[in-house]
Amino acid sequence: MARTLMKGTEAIAEAAIQAGCKYFFGYPITPQNEIPEYMSAHLPKVGGMYLQAESEIASINLVMGGASTGYRVMTTSSSPGISLMSEGISYVAMAELPCVIVNITRGGPGLGNILPAQGDYTQATRGGGHGDYSVPVLAPGNLQEAVDFTQDAFDLSQKYRTPVMVLADGFMGQMMEAVEIKPRKTEDPVSNADWALGWRDERGGQRRIVYSMHLSPDELEAHDTHLQEKYARIRTNEARFEHFMTDDAELIVTSYGTTSRVCRSAIINLREEGFKVGMVRPITLWPFPSAGYSSLPKSVKVILDVEMSAAFQMADDVRLATQCEIPLMTAGRWGGYSPSVRQIEEKCKELLNG
Amino acid sequence: MSETQVFSMPKVWNADVHTHYCPGCTHGVAHRLVSEAIDELGIQNKTIGIAPVGCAVLMHQYLDLDFIEAAHGRAPAVASGIKAVRPDKIVFTYQGDGDLASIGMGEIVHAMNRSLPLTIIFVNNAIYGMTGGQMAPTTLLGQKSTTSPSGRDAKMNGYPIRVSEMLATLAGPAYIERVALTQPKYIIKAKQAVLKAFKNQAEGRGVSFVELLSTCPTNWGMRPTDACKWLEEHMIPYYPLGVLKDFQ
Ligand SMILES: Cc1ncc(C[n+]2csc(CCOP(=O)(O)OP(=O)(O)O)c2C)c(N)n1
Ligand code: SF4
To answer: Taking the model in full, what pTM does it have?
Structure first.
């Protein structure tokens, strides 16, 4: 497909279809409704199915059922809906099923509002549900990345047999940009027959059980250990970040998703004025790309964490990544506001001049 | 002298596994009926079961079938997800009353209403078995449980829910029947109902639902024979047996 002007939500939906996702289960919530709408219109054309669940609790459990058969399935939602899915995500992670969950976040807590916010970082990166599990989280910074990361999410989920989340805020869902969506090579579902349900004949009569209960402490300890080893492999292999103008930087802005675009503009302006500013942008929020910080040059005197979150939820991860050796300051807006380029510029100047 | 075998374990029964059910519990009878239906229809290799949370949580160990274990109450959603992707498979859930009528009430109502061809086996023993005898939505008025120690009181706890009747008001379901598991005459009927619920699905009809009135001698605090008697004297009058909905 040539580059086409598309809305974020629709681009994500089309990217999923091009990655071989034929089954979508979801429940409406703003600001991501165009995804289920797009899926309901387009999945039947590729021999797939859109099924509207009665709730997010049901959505994720429909996904669990669909994923257990080895096919590519997906659900999307926004903050309050993801809270409801937490139970199911914990079960899917424990049962080691692949699936993709897109969270187009909005303002919270509670019903909050339907405007963009980044207050779900902790929920996304700390599992969100009960027990010892983690979910890889990809945070696109523009719509082309939203497309590519949605497709990457399917591959990652299959590779590690785990739910994978794409975390993008409401801006990303609602803005339009030119994107190119390429078909992504997908394996035949039968290639999952060694673990998936519904392939008994293909396995020569052998059955499979997908379960998450291990009553014996020995078994559960062994399975939990197995999961942690898998997560360790993901930490080693899949952590991703971007450095922008960091080489000689004295001040590092760190930010993900939409706010990283604002910061990028601010940095370009500041550089023109001679300020030595750069950015570390985490692309995977879990695993958190600590190397993005440990590899910073000695010239860095301060880090400015910019988020659309009143609690500056990512800042703790940055402190851990820098082992608190670099002073960390924060700036941002919340409640549905994005910080402005001007606000970031002024904050940077204050820190550099102060 | 030639021998004629008159009794054997169902083919889908995992002969080398012992169940953990209490003596006299009718979960065992219910499992047998499900097993026999699958045997009779010859669908072992294409059947996928959804185990519940409750006393039947280890059902996937007992029946030699592809199985997935759902979260408490979510089995109908998991089943719908499987059926949506694999309409060629036979998909069934097996759920207790706590699972299906309390925490999973939303999921069952909507699965019944969507009517993707599924088979739902609903084991109603009027109590939470696995967690030690707490009150269920189906616990009878006046019935004692560990969380209704002086008997269920409608003022605080509402009334026992007649799930089959409620679901029968929906346009979606193909078939709903309530049967009991206490005596041969009831069990023969129950067997036909379970078989029909699987056959409907094999023939592509919408969702089929069989409610099995079951005993929980352990948590009712009764001997198995007394539990059967109690079921017949107290449960059947409130939960009358019979077909509530049929596609025909
Ligand atoms: C979310 C959640 N809440 C509560 C429980 C605890 N729990 C396990 S089994 C059960 C009751 C099961 O009762 P029922 O479905 O009637 O089945 P039975 O044990 O009687 O066969 C409960 C409440 C759980 N596992 N998950
Ligand atoms: S607790 Fe009740 S329902 Fe559970 S196995 Fe024992 S008798 Fe059966």
So the answer is: 0.96
- Pairing type for strands B175-180 and B242-246 reads antiparallel
Q: Can you list the residues of chain A whose pLDDT is less than 70?
A: none
B128, B146, B212: which to mutate for ligand 1, most atoms within 8 A of CB? Answer: B128
Catalogue the E-assigned strands of chain B.
47-51, 66-69, 90-96, 119-124, 175-180, 208-213, 242-246
Give per-residue pLDDT as tens, B127-166: 999 999 999 999 999 999 999 999 999 999 999 999 999 9
Among A209, A212, A219, which would you mutate to test the B interface (most chain B Cβ atoms within 10 Å of its Cβ)?
A209
Half-sphere exposure of A153 (CA within 13 A, CB side): 37
The amino acid at B52: P
Q: For residue A307, how many C-alpha atoms fall within 13 Å in the half-sphere facing its CB?
A: 21
Rounded CA gap, A352 and A84, in Å?
A: 43
Nearest CA to B136 among B77, B220, B34? B220
- Select from B19, B47, B53, B66 the residue whose CB has the most chain A CBs within 10 Å, as the one to mutate to test that interface: B66
Strands A302-307 and B47-51: unpaired
Q: Which residues pair with A330 in a beta bridge?
A: A305
Question: How buried is residue B1: exposed, middle or buried, by Cβ count under 10 Å (0-12/13-18/19+)?
Answer: exposed
Average pLDDT of the residues of chain B: 97
One-letter amino acid of B95: Q
Give the span between the Cα atoms of B123 and B129, in whole angstroms. 11
| Backbone angle region of A173, left / alpha / beta, with phi > 0 → left and psi within -120 to 50 → alpha | alpha
- Could you tell me if A63 lies within 8 Å of chain B, comparing CB atoms? yes
First-to-last C-alpha distance (Å) of chain A: 50
Residue A53 near chain B (CB below 8 Å): yes
pLDDT bucket at B245, cuts 50 / 70 / 90: very high
Evaluate whether A171 touches A116 at the Cβ level (below 8 Å).
Answer: yes
Judge whether B79 is closer than 8 Å to chain A, CB to CB.
yes
List all residues whose CB is within 6 A of at least one atom of ligand 2: B 21-22, 25, 27, 55, 125, 129-130, 216-219
* Strand ranges inside chain A, DSSP E: 4-7, 23-26, 49-52, 73-77, 99-105, 137-138, 163-169, 176-179, 209-210, 241-244, 251-254, 277-282, 284-286, 302-307, 328-332
